[in-house]
C-alpha cells in the first residue's frame, strides 16, 4: 500500500515533468529509426525540439532511466520505469535517444566494466555524445558467431587488429565500435575472443555501407587494417569476450523482439486496417481475420515481454529463454508488416508513396529474424538448452 | 496490478497441487473412470474440497479461502496438466463467482455449500452448437407469482450429476434472467451426452418447470450482471486448464522425443522435430503470459476484464490445439492408440476449445475491444 | 475431335448404365468406411441395395474400371475412368466396392505378378470375394519400414514364418494378408525381404484389434507363429520384395492423399459450414476465413491429383513426387476436419451425436499423416530425392 | 478439356522461352534497367514481339499466333522466373483479350499493332488502394456527341510508357464504360510511380478529357462484357508469372542450400531446412496445377472461368509470398542485400500480389462460387 502510494506519487511527478519538458513536436509517436535521435559527434538534429528533448531528458537521467545516477541515469526501479514508459506512451512521446550504447554496450559495461570505464563511457552514452556500433558478424560466418577471424595480435601495450566485420549497423555514422576480436588463435573457438572498444577515427578503420533490398543502408562492412587498440580498451578479461558477447546477445534478442510487439505496435495494425479500408470488416474478411489473429498473438507476445521483464526483476534468470522473445517477436513483426502491406494495397507499393515508406519498413522487418541470431538459431538454442533435446 | 510472475504463494499452491494431482488424479484416473462408464468421481472431489480448492473464489466468511482468480488459474492449470476430472470450473469458479456477485445471505450459504463440497452446480446456457448466450431462446414466462420455464439446453457441462442448475432463460420483454434450481425439480429431464473427452455433459429439457421469485438470481431481466463475471471467470479458468493441458501434452511429447529411437538415433535429435518442439514451447510460454494476465486483471479490475479473458481463451485454444496435434503426430502410430494417453489430451482440448466460446468467438471479442 | 465423340458416347452409355443399375439407396454420397462395401468372405451386406450394387458393378467390370477385362475389370482408359467417376459423382453414388486388394495388391500384382497369379487372385478381388489386408509395419520400427524383423525360414517347398506385424488395417476382417517378410537375414536391410501372400485361416495366424483414440479399431496387431507359406505365394522374386513394397507405397500415398481431397471433399466443408451456421458469413468470420483458405487449397490439391494422374497416363513417371500428394493431401484433410469440428461446435463433441460421428472422422484423419509413411518421412523423401539436398 | 499436362507444343514453347529469357532478360537486366532509372526496355520488347509472343492471344488473321491462354501462361511463367520486365500482361494478354472480345475491324487492326509490337496498351482501372472495378468513381459524362472524362487512376501498370490507355469510367446511369484512348490526348497527365518492383506504373489524372463514340470499346454501360474476360486473362497470366517467380526464387534458394556451408556442413543438410524446402516445393507443385487448369478453362470454357482464375491467382499469391519469405530467410543476411537478386523477387511478389486483386479478393470469389 505504501508502495502504491510511492508509485502514484512518482507517476504524478513524471507526468508533470513530461508535460513541461517534452516538446509538442516530439509527441507524434514516431518510433522509426529516422524519427528518433541516435546522438553522436556527427548527429544533426532534425529540429530544435529534438535537441532540447534530448538535453532535458539527459539532464533528468531519462535517456537511460534504470542506470545509476552516477553514470547519467535516473536510477529508476523496474516499476518506476514501467510507469515512465506508460506516461511516455500516454502522450505519444518519441524516446529522447536511442542507441546501441544504451541497449547493448551499456548493459555489458555495467556488468563487466571497470569502475573507470563506467565513469568514462557511460555518461557519454547517456548524453548522446558518443554513438556506438557493434562489430560481431564476419563475412561467411553467418549464424556461427563464434567463428571470429578478425585477429588482434598482442603487441605488449596494444593489440594490432586486422580483419573485417559485416552487418555493422550504422557503422558509417558511429564514433566508436565494440567488436569481437580473436586475440588467441591457439585456444578453442569460444576461448580466444576479446571484447574490444575501437575508435572509428583510429587510423586503419574504414567502413562501407551495404545497400539493402529496402533501398536503405543501415548496415556496413567495416575493415581493420593494422589498427592499434590500447590494452585498456577491453570489456571483461582478455580472451573471455565470448562471455560478454553471450550476455549481450540476450539483451539484443530482447530489444529486437520488443521492437516487434507491444501494445502500440498492435494498435498500428488495427489503425492501418481501419484507415485504409474504411469499414474493414465489410471489405476483406479474409484479411481482417488474419489481422485479428495477428492482434491476438501480438497482445499475448507483448504481455510475455512484460512477464519476462518482471521475472528478471524478480531475480528469476531468463537466460536462453530470451531466444523465445527474439524468435516470436521478430516472426510476429514480419507477419504484422505483411498484413499492413496488404491493408495498404497499392498505396504501399511505392517508395515514399501516399502512406509513407511502408515498403521500406516492411522490408526492414525481414532482417529482424536474421540479425542477432536467425530464427533457426533461436529454435535450436531453445531445443537444446531449454528443452534438453539431444544433439544430432 | 501485481506483476506477471507467480507470487510465492501461487508457486507453492502450484507445487502442492501438482504433487496431489500426480498421485490422486493422473490421466489414468480419467481412463479408469471412463472404462467404468462414469463421468464423475465424488471421492476425488471430496478430497479436493477438503483441501479447500472449491473455496478458492469464495469469501472467508462463507468458508472459502478467497485466493482469487490468478490462484484459481494456477489450480486449473495443474488440473489441466493431468486432465483431472472434477466440477471445479462449473462449481468452484463459475457458480461461485456468480453467487458472490449476487451477494446476500442465500448466496452466502450456497457458496458455503460449494466450498464444503456439499453441493455442485452446473451452468445451463448453450442451446445450439455454439456458445451464444445472447441468443437464448428458452423461456421463463411469468406465471402467477412465479415463472414457468420451457426449453432445451445442451452441452451442460457437469450437468449430468450436478445438484443445482444455473439456468439462463428469456423473460418476455424484460430480457435474460438467471435461475438457480435444484436439478430434480419437476419437469426437468437430464440426458447424458457421451462426450469425447469422457467428462460429464448433459442435454436438459425443461417442460413447464415452476420457479419462484426466490429461484431468480439477481434481477429479472438482469442476468448478465452476475452471469458475465461468472462466464469470464470460467473462461479464464478454462484457458488456464487448457494451458496446463498443452503443457502436459508437450511434456509427454518431449519425453517421447528423448526416449524414442529411429534410424539409430533419438528422434528428438532430428532438427525438424527440434524446431517444431521449440516453436510449440514458445507458443506455450506466450499463452502462459495471457493466462496469468487474465487472472491478475480479474483480481484487480474485474469489470474491465473482457479483453484479458478473451485473449487468454483464444490463445489457450490455439495453443492447446497445436500441442495435441503436434503431440499425436510426433508420437506416430502409438499416439493414435487408446492405450496411450495422448488421445485423452487431444479430445479434452477439442471440448475445451468449444466450451464457453471458441477461438473465433473470443478473437472477435478482442477485435471489437481493439477497434478492429 | 473423333476422340471427343467417342468419349461423349461413352459418357452417355455410362450415364444410362448408372441410371439403370445404381440403386437409389446407394446415391447418398456416403464414402466413409462404414458406408461402403469392403467385400470378403465374411462381409455382411448392410442392405440388398449394397449387394446388388456390388454385383452389378462387378459384372460390368466397374469395381476396378481400369483393370483388363480378363481380370475382372472394364479396361477403361484414364479419360474414360474420369468420365465414369464424374458420372458417379453426379448422382452421388457410393463406390460399389473398396478394398486394399483393389488399391494396393492389385496394382502390385498387375506389375509384378505371374500370369497364373493374376488370373487367380485379381478376379476374386474385383468381385469382392476375397478381402485383403496389408502387413508392413512392425512394432518399434515406426517410419523405418525396411527394418522388417518377421522372418521366413526357407524350408524347401515353403517358408516358415514367425513374427509380428502392427497397424494391419482391418486384419480382423480380412481373408488374406500380403506381408513383407525377411527371408534372408544375412543380406543388407533392403535386400532380404520378400512379398508374401498368406491366408489368414492358416494355422498360426492370429490377430488382435488395436483400439484407437476414436474408439474404432481399424488396425490390428497380427501374429505369425510357425505359419507355413508355400513357395508360389510370393509376388515378385524372393528377397526382392522391397521393390514391390516401394511400388505399392507410391500407390498407397496417392490413395491416402486423394481420400483427403477432391471436389466432393471440399464441398463437404462448405456444406457443413452452411448447415451448421445458417448464414456462415454473419456468424464467425474468423472461422469462415479459415474455411475459405482451406477450400482454396483443397481445390488446388484436387487439381494436383488430377494432374498427376494425367501425367502418369502420359507416361511421365511420378515416382517420389507421390510423396507430395500424400503429404499435402493428408495435412489438408486434418485441417479440413478441424474446421468441420469447429463449424459443428458442441454438436460434434459427442460420439454419434446429432451430426453423426464427426468426432470419429476427425480423429481418424490424424492417422492419415502417420500411416503409409509420416509427413516427416514424405518431406525427407522429397528433400533428398526430388530436391537433391544432401544427407546430414 | 485438355489434360492437366503440358502438351508437347507447350513444353517446347517453355523450353524456347527459358533459353531466350536466360540470355536476354535475366534478373540482371531488370537490375540494370533500374540502375539506369528506367522502367521499360523497348529493345527487349521488340525482340519478344519478333518472336511472336505479343500475338499469343491474337487471331492469325490479325497477325497473331493464337496459341491460347495456357500457352500465354507458359510464357508468363517463364518471364516470372527471370523477372523479365515487359508489357506482356498489359498489352499482349489484357488488351488483346479485350479487343478480341470486342471484335470488328478496328479491334482487329489494334490487335495487329499489338502483335507487331507497334503499340502498347495499359489498363487504367484502379482508383484507390485496392482492386475494385465495380467501385469506379471516374466519370465519363455525355457531352455533345461524345464524352468528357474526369477523374484519377493509380497503379496503372505500364501506364508510364504505354501508347494507349484502356480506361474504365462511369457514364451516368448507364454504368461502366470502357474507353480506348491515346495516352497523349489533351487533358491526360501521367505521373510515374516509383514502384518497389522497379517496374512501370503511373498515376494518371483525367481532366475534362474529350472522347468520341469511336473511343468507346463495346457498349456504353457495357464495359464488363469485354473487360471481365480481359481481367480474367490478365489474372491467370499474372498468376502464371507469380508461379514462375516462386519457382525462380525457390531454385535460387535450393541452390544456396546446397552450396552454402555453416557449422561445417551444407546448410541444406539440416533437416528443418530440408522439410521447409520440401514443403515449399509441394506448395509450388499444387499451385502449378491451379495455373495450368486456369489456362485450360480459359481456352475451353472462357465464360465459366472465374473460379479457375481466382483459384489460380489466390494460390499463386500465397505461394509466391511463401517462396520469397523462405528465400530471404534461408539466405540469411545476404538475401537482404540489394546486391543479391532475392530482393527483386520479394518486391515483385508483393506487387504481383496486389495487382488485379489480392489473395482476399480472389479467395472471396472462390468462396462465393462455392457457396461458402
TrEMBL record, chains A, C:
The keyword Protease does not apply. The keyword Flavoprotein applies. Pfam families: Acyl-CoA_dh_1, Acyl-CoA_dh_M, Acyl-CoA_dh_N. Residues 239-387 form the Acyl-CoA dehydrogenase/oxidase C-terminal domain. Residues 43-129 form the Acyl-CoA dehydrogenase/oxidase N-terminal domain. Belongs to the acyl-CoA dehydrogenase family. Its cofactor is FAD. This is Acyl-CoA dehydrogenase. The lineage of its organism: Bacteria, Pseudomonadati, Pseudomonadota, Alphaproteobacteria, Rhodobacterales. InterPro entries: Acyl-CoA_Oxase/DH_mid-dom, Acyl-CoA_Oxase/DH_mid-dom_sf, AcylCo_DH-like_C, AcylCo_DH/oxidase_C, AcylCoA_DH/ox_N, AcylCoA_DH/ox_N_sf, AcylCoA_DH/oxidase_NM_dom_sf, Mycobact_Acyl-CoA_DH. Residues 133-227 form the Acyl-CoA oxidase/dehydrogenase middle domain. It comes from the Bacteria. Keywords: FAD, Flavoprotein, Oxidoreductase. SUPFAM superfamilies: Acyl-CoA dehydrogenase C-terminal domain-like, Acyl-CoA dehydrogenase NM domain-like. One of its GO terms (molecular function) is oxidoreductase activity, acting on the CH-CH group of donors. GO terms for cellular component: plasma membrane.
Amino acid at each position: 500500500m505504501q508502495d502504491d502510494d510511492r508509485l502514484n506519487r512518482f507517476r504524478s511527478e513524471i507526468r508533470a515533468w513530461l508535460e513541461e519538458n517534452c516538446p509538442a513536436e516530439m509527441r507524434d509517436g514516431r518510433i522509426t529509426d529516422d524519427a528518433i535521435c541516435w546522438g553522436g559527434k556527427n548527429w544533426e538534429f532534425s529540429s530544435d525540439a529534438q535537441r532540447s528533448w534530448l538535453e532535458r531528458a539527459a539532464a533528468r537521467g531519462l535517456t537511460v532511466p534504470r542506470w545509476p545516477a552516477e553514470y547519467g541515469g535516473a536510477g529508476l526501479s523496474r516499476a518506476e520505469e514501467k510507469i515512465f514508459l506508460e506516461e511516455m506512451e500516454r502522450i505519444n512521446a518519441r524516446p529522447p535517444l536511442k542507441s546501441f550504447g544504451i541497449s547493448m554496450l551499456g548493459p555489458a559495461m555495467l556488468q563487466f566494466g571497470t569502475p573507470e570505464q563506467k565513469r568514462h563511457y557511460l555518461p557519454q552514452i547517456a548524453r548522446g555524445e558518443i554513438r556506438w556500433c557493434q562489430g560481431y558478424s564476419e563475412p561467411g560466418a553467418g549464424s556461427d558467431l563464434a567463428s571470429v577471424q578478425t585477429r588482434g595480435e598482442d603487441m605488449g601495450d596494444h593489440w594490432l587488429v586486422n580483419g573485417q566485420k559485416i552487418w555493422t549497423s550504422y557503422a558509417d555514422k558511429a564514433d566508436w565500435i565494440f567488436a569481437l576480436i580473436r586475440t588467441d588463435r591457439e585456444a578453442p573457438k569460444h576461448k580466444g575472443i576479446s571484447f574490444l572498444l575501437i575508435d572509428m577515427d583510429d587510423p586503419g578503420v574504414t567502413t562501407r555501407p551495404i545497400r539493402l533490398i529496402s533501398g536503405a543502408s543501415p548496415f556496413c562492412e567495416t575493415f581493420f587494417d593494422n589498427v592499434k587498440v590500447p590494452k585498456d580498451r577491453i570489456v571483461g578479461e582478455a580472451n573471455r569476450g565470448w562471455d560478454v558477447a553471450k550476455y549481450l546477445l540476450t539483451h539484443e534478442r530482447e530489444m529486437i523482439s520488443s521492437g516487434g510487439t507491444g501494445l502500440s505496435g498492435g494498435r498500428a495494425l488495427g489503425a492501418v486496417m481501419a484507415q485504409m479500408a474504411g469499414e474493414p470488416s465489410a471489405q476483406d474478411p479474409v484479411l481482417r481475420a488474419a489481422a485479428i489473429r495477428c492482434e491476438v498473438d501480438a497482445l499475448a507476445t507483448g504481455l510475455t515481454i512484460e512477464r519476462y521483464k518482471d521475472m528478471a526483476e524478480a531475480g528469476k534468470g531468463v537466460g536462453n529463454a530470451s531466444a523465445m522473445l527474439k524468435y516470436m517477436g521478430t516472426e510476429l513483426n514480419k507477419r504484422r508488416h505483411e498484413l499492413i502491406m496488404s491493408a495498404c494495397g497499392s498505396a504501399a507499393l511505392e517508395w515514399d508513396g501516399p502512406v509513407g515508406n511502408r515498403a521500406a519498413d516492411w522490408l526492414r522487418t525481414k532482417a529482424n529474424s536474421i540479425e542477432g541470431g536467425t530464427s533457426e538459431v533461436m529454435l535450436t538454442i531453445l531445443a537444446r538448452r531449454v528443452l534438453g533435446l539431444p544433439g544430432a | 496490478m501485481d506483476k506477471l510472475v507467480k507470487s510465492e504463494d501461487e508457486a507453492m499452491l502450484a507445487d502442492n497441487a501438482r504433487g496431489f494431482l500426480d498421485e490422486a488424479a493422473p490421466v489414468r484416473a480419467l481412463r479408469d473412470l471412463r472404462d467404468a462408464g462414469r463421468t464423475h468421481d465424488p471421492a476425488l472431489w471430496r478430497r479436493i474440497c477438503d483441501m479447500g480448492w472449491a473455496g478458492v473464489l469464495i469469501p472467508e466468511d462463507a468458508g472459502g479461502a478467497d485466493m482469487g482468480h490468478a490462484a484459481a488459474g494456477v489450480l486449473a492449470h495443474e488440473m489441466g496438466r493431468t486432465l483431472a476430472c472434477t466440477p471445479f470450473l462449473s462449481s468452484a469458479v463459475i457458480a461461485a463467482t456468480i453467487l458472490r456477485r449476487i451477494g446476500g445471505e442465500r448466496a452466502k450459504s450456497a457458496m458455503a455449500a460449494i466450498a464444503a463440497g456439499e453441493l455442485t452446480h452446473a451452468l445451463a446456457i448453450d442451446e445450439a452448437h455454439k456458445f451464444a448466450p445472447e441468443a437464448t431462446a428458452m423461456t421463463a414466462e411469468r406465471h402467477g407469482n412465479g415463472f414457468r420455464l420451457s426449453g432445451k439446453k445442451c452441452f451442460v457441462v457437469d450437468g449430468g450429476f450436478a445438484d443445482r442448475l444455473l439456468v439462463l432463460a428469456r423473460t418476455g420483454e424484460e430480457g435474460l434472467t438467471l435461475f438457480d434450481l435444484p436439478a430434480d425439480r419437476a419437469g426437468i429431464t437430464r440426458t447424458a451426452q457421451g462426450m469425447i473427452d469422457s467428462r460429464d455433459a448433459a442435454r436438459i429439457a425443461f417442460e413447464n418447470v415452476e420457479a419462484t421469485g426466490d429461484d431468480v438470481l439477481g434481477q429479472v431481466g438482469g442476468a448478465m450482471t452476475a452471469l458475465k463475471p461468472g462466464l469470464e471467470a470460467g473462461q479464464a479458468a478454462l484457458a488456464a486448464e487448457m494451458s496446463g493441458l498443452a503443457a502436459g501434452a508437450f511434456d509427454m511429447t518431449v519425453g517421447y522425443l528423448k526416449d524414442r529411437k529411429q534410424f539409430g538415433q533419438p528422434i528428438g535429435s532430428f532438427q525438424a522435430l527440434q524446431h517444431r518442439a521449440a516453436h510449440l514451447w514458445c507458443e506455450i510460454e506466450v499463452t502462459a503470459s495471457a493466462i496469468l494476465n487474465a487472472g491478475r486483471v480479474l483480481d484487480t479490475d474485474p469489470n474491465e476484464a473482457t479483453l484479458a479473458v478473451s485473449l487468454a481463451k483464444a490463445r489457450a485454444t490455439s495453443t492447446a490445439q497445436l500441442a495435441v496435434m503436434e503431440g499425436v503426430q510426433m508420437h506416430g502410430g502409438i499416439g493414435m492408440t487408446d492405450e496411450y494417453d495422448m488421445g485423452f489430451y487431444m479430445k479434452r482440448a477439442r471440448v475445451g476449445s468449444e466450451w464457453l466460446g471458441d477461438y473465433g468467438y473470443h478473437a472477435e471479442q478482442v477485435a471489437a475491444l481493439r477497434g478492429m
